[in-house]
Amino acid sequence: MCQDHCSNAKAHSDVPAGDAALSRRALVRSGLLGAAALGMGSPALGMGSPALANAGARPVQAVRPAPTKDGKSALSPDQALALLMEGNQAFLKNEMPTVDLSPRRRLELARGQAPFVAYVTCSDSRVPPELLFGRGLGELFIIRNAGNTIDTVAQGSLEFAVAVLGVPLVVVMGHESCGAVKAAMDVVAKNARFPGRIGNMVEPIIPAVLEARGRAGDPLEAACKANVSRTVRTLRNESDPLLLEPQRQGRLKVVGAYYELGTGRVDFFDRPQAA
Predict the structure, then answer these.
(1) What are phi and psi of 171, to 5 degrees?
(2) pLDDT at 55
(3) pLDDT recorded at residue 79
(4) Mean pLDDT of 96-109
(5) At 142, which helix (H) or strand (E)?
(6) Which helix (H) or strand (E) holds 69?
(7) How far does the chain reach from its first CA to its final CA, in angstroms?
């Protein structure tokens, strides 16, 4: 055994210094390549790669942009809502649609947009509309603020989306564990005060909190849904003719929704009653 070991040591000592250096470099290079194949920078298994980020997600067929006609959405209000519901069902199944992000699509959108829905929702980072519905560039006209309220800016944005862009659907969506609604509840229950403009921001939500008191179930969920429904009622009944007239003609619908953070489900719970 000692003889074999000594022979091996002698064999190594007989390797010229230059060859030994090359051999060591080859080993290092080999090790780096092996590490890359195991995940360090590998497109398939690398850290931060799409494969790891979407582990378990089932790829589905590429999603084509919603149809347009004469530069505006070609969908009816019901078709637009069905498209959102279909997309959310795919999200719940952990299906990851492929949307068109190509240079050709970007150049097309640079010439104009034709979204099929104006979406009013919360600024909360856990509420990503495009991901929830599997839609791509130029399809959702999104208006966001904490508490999904309608101020002058949001109202004007909705009117632009309907009157100029021709969207057939407006959705107002609240969500589970909304901090803005919780703050409004604290104002009502504890006379809470907040620094800066936060108090002013939650003031429009207070009537919904008062309306929801005494309802069955989780108080915060009830207040979130009441906040959505109050906004929806205003947009349906007390808004500008720019929104009221297309609703009367059947070209526009306003729908209220609630997003469950834990499940990923969007419940379109407040829909217009059939005439």
Answers:
(1) -120, 130
(2) 53
(3) 98
(4) 93
(5) strand 140-144
(6) strand 68-69
(7) 96
Determine contact, residues 227/148, Cβ cutoff 8 Å: yes
d(CA 138, CA 8): 69
For residue 173, give the H/E element and its range. Answer: strand 169-175
Packing angle between helix 241-248 and helix 219-237, nearest 10 degrees?
90
Cα–Cα distance, 252 to 161 (Å, whole number): 11
The H or E element that residue 258 is part of is: strand 253-259
d(CA 133, CA 89): 8
Burial 229-265 (b: 16+ CB within 10 A, else e): bbbbeebbeebeebbeebbeeeebbbbbbbbeeeeee
Average pLDDT over residues 246-268: 98
The per-residue pLDDT for 56 is: 60
State pTM to two decimals. Answer: 0.79
What's the residue count for the chain? 275
Tally of CB atoms within 10 A around 217: 9
Read off the pLDDT of residues 166-221 as tens digits, 9 standing for 90 and up: 999 999 999 999 999 999 999 999 999 999 999 999 999 999 999 999 999 999 99
* Amino acid, res. 196: G
Separation of CA 8 from chain center: 63
Q: Determine the residue type at 199.
A: G
